[in-house]
User: Fold this.
Amino acid sequence: MSNSGRSSAQRRYRSTKRHSGGTREQRAVVFVVCGGVETEPQYIDYLKMALGLKNVHIRLSKLGKSPVEVVRRAIGTREDADEIVWALVDVDDFGSGVAEAVELGRQNGVQVAVSNPCFELWLVWHFEKLGGHLNQGQVQARAAKLELTYGKDHKSIHIDKLRDRYEHASAQAKRMRKYHAENETACPDDCPSTNVDLFVDSLLALEAR
Assistant:
């Protein structure tokens, strides 16, 4: 997120209650729509706890459909014009449709966090600099081998393993964004990549305001 975008986000607040002294306590409201119905929502719940969010309220929706449909859900079901809206989507098999989703979001005030090829890449980057052109199956298999995921189809996250590893994942995400920018590779060709770190950074900035 750019500095100007972050400043804009920090100015968006919703009043949640009034104290007896007449002053208002302001709380940022962040509406998140996830393209995954299991793994990503678990991670959002983890963030609420790990970040100890008191100044930020996250309203969550999940929709297991294409990135464009996820962004449309975000646009169509926002409750307030002041809500900060994010869509979390994967490239998976959607290809160029992801770029369309990002542009649709840009035109409608929805920030889109894209993981290429899939969200599990973000989990793996908490522990290692997994690189090279990877498909969804390869990344998910690596997440399972590292015991970051478990259960049916490995859709559940071993949350405790992520603790104190955010900076490692964030640094790798930034390195790969720089690499793709220097090589002029854009979505969906910017594999591997994710900007979930920008989503997390936006929550940190709002919480610290």
In short: The beta strands are 14-18, 24-34, 56-62, 84-90, 110-116, 149-150, 156-157, 193-194.
